[in-house]
Amino acid sequence: MKNFMFWAAILFCSAKCDVASAQSWTRTSAPTNAWTAVAASADGTHLVAVGNRFIYTSTNYGLTWISNSAPTVSWLSVASSADGAKLAAVANSVYTNSGTVWTLAFSPGSPGNQQAAGAIASSADGTKLVIADYLLFTPLIYTSTNAGATWLSVISSPSAPWVAVASSADGNHLAAARTSATSGAIYTSTNAGASWVSNNVSSLPFLWTALASSANGSVLLAAAPPMFLASTNAGSNWTFVANAPLAINKVACSTNGNVWFGVSSNSGQIYSSLNAGAGWITNNAPRTNWSAIAVSKDGNRAVAAVSGGGIYTLQPPPLIITAATNKVSIFWTTNEIGFGLQQSTNLTTANWVAVTNDPVVTNAFYQVSLPATNRQQFFRLAAP
User: Fold this and answer.
1) C-alpha span between 158 and 179 (Å, rounded)
2) Would you give the distance in Å from CA 162 to the centre of its chain?
3) What is the CA radius of gyration of the chain?
4) Which distant-in-sequence residues (6+ apart) come within 8 Å of 265 by Cβ?
5) Which of the chain's ends, N or C, has fewer CB atoms near its CB within 10 Å?
6) Based on the number of CB atoms within 10 Å of its own CB, is 362 exposed (0-12), middle (13-18) or buried (19 or more)?
């Protein structure tokens, strides 16, 4: 027996479940601050958080953080490339970073035509960016196709501030939400912002607070507390998520659009759905003033921030292995409801097969025992 490796996948919960403390969040060493936004690389290794006066980054899943050489301003939003190497943040103006030093990239507006960027989203490679202007009388959306070197004004809407944007992985599918006194409108683009279509999701004056997009842009999430809406066809049609927790004000989703996360500054909780909104679970995170959330591409890792507090991370549950004569035993905690154990002999082919042995419960752990062999084996937990 040799070379065992242990992986973990996302929690699974059947429809309409409500399991408290099903996911464990841990406060990191990041300092207390009025955090406003967070972003994560695809694997969750690289994290970035912005807030009042500071930008902090981590390259080890949030274990340690460093303060970047950023202007001491009130940061509003931040975006990251999939590898975490290209970052962009807004504080009315746009700043970019490919290391630890931030550089002014773009200041929207002109003398006598004040504008202010308040939201930003990025393509996976970090080259395509979209920003939204939130000022009442000069609302615009700008895009960049060269990592912020140059910008183009692509859409305007009189007297309706743009408050949220989202981007697909290739940067071609974009979504933007604007606040209106008469209707809630979300605009979408399928050509990197060259043209836009208005999705009149409701005649209600929704106060949008966040958008999120799957990698291909087909799944879109929109928060307008106490309403939570979703689209599965790139914004052509929207539905109210009937059983979603109330007052979700920030959202994030996995690249396949199946794993959803939401935070509520009102209820003070973090929520997650592992089946595209059919069922929700709460978390063991403290009830507090959550202000931002971001997730890894598989939804297995996440980072959340508190306005006036710290930064917390969600890590995958560990597998534990013990060896005895002619057998090995694999354990995971009973908090990880619904996981199934899978095995593979080759990570490259990713040919995972379910372990059919039924687990037994031993002292708050699930346990599966298998005969020891001389061949290489890899194990992970996965949704059935």
Assistant:
1) 11
2) 20
3) 22
4) 247, 249, 289, 290, 291, 307
5) C
6) exposed
Alpha-carbon distance of 344 to 355, in angstroms, equals 10
* Between residues 203 and 225, the one the model is more confident about: 225
Residue 141 CB contacts under 8 Å (≥ 6 apart), including other chains: 130, 131, 132, 133, 153, 154, 155, 156, 162, 165, 176, 193
User: What is the C-alpha to C-alpha distance for residues 209 and 190, in angstroms, rounded to an integer?
Assistant: 22
Distance set, CA 90 to CA 101, 119, 180, 333 (Å): 15, 7, 23, 41
pLDDT tens sequence across 32-76 = 999 999 999 999 999 999 999 999 999 999 999 999 989 999 999
Determine the Cα–Cα distance for residues 344 and 332; give it in Å rounded to an integer: 18
Enter the tokens of residue 209.
């607070």
Say how many residues make up the chain.
Answer: 384
Mean pLDDT (the chain, rounded): 84
Q: Which of 23-27, 104-108, 349-353 has the lowest mean pLDDT?
A: 349-353
The Cα 337–Cα 278 span in angstroms is: 16
Q: Is the pTM of this model over 0.70?
A: yes
Q: DSSP string spanning 53-69?
A: S-EEEESSTTSS-EE-B
Query: Which parts of 112-209 are beta strand (E)?
Result: 113-114, 117-122, 129-133, 140-144, 152-156, 162-167, 174-178, 184-189, 197-202
